[in-house]
Amino acid sequence: MENKGMQFFRMFSHVCKVINSTLSLNEVLKLITENVVKALNAKACTIFLLDTKNKKLEVGASYGVSETYLKKGPLDADKSIAESLKGKPVLVYDAAKDPQTQYPEEAKKEGIASILSVPIPVQGKVIGVLRIYTPQPRKFSDDENEFVSGLAEMGGIAIVNAMTHERLKEDSQG
Predict the structure, then answer these.
(1) Residue 156 falls inside a structural domain
(2) What digits encode the pLDDT tens for the residues 84-141?
(3) Is residue 132 part of a domain?
(4) pTM for the model
(5) What are the beta bridge partners of residue 57?
(6) Could you give phi then psi for residue 104, rounded to 5 degrees?
(7) Which entry of 49, 92, 99, 137 is 20 to 30 Å from 85 by CA?
């Protein structure tokens, strides 16, 4: 049986290859969320992109959560696990009771116990967060935190590349 470190390496390698093979923002985001869930044996994963103008987090992609949960209401960047937007991973061990959870009742109904929120940095600036949800309370290991942080950094680069490509495509057509 392969050790966890080798599994993370293989998953990271796979995600990097696929990220580099597409310039579609939706494909990149979906790929990251799905692979994070599989690699960490989690319930779900969502990528939120920061709308700096309105100070909201907007769903970029998700895997494993219901539409009802995704549409529970706007996520205020200053109220929804805000510390992760300052550049550090944040663990919410009990989402139903932690004051950092903006919608604790909805998390409970969705079957979410713990949330790991990891910043998505690009050139020293956080452009969003990657959130991992577990059905039981869970603390993530240092290796898991490092793996997710690395994917979030790669994802940030891919997001910027895809957005730039989409803008260039629109400009050339319009």
Answers:
(1) yes
(2) 999 999 999 999 999 999 999 999 999 999 999 999 999 999 999 999 999 999 999 9
(3) yes
(4) 0.88
(5) 50, 75
(6) -65, -40
(7) 137
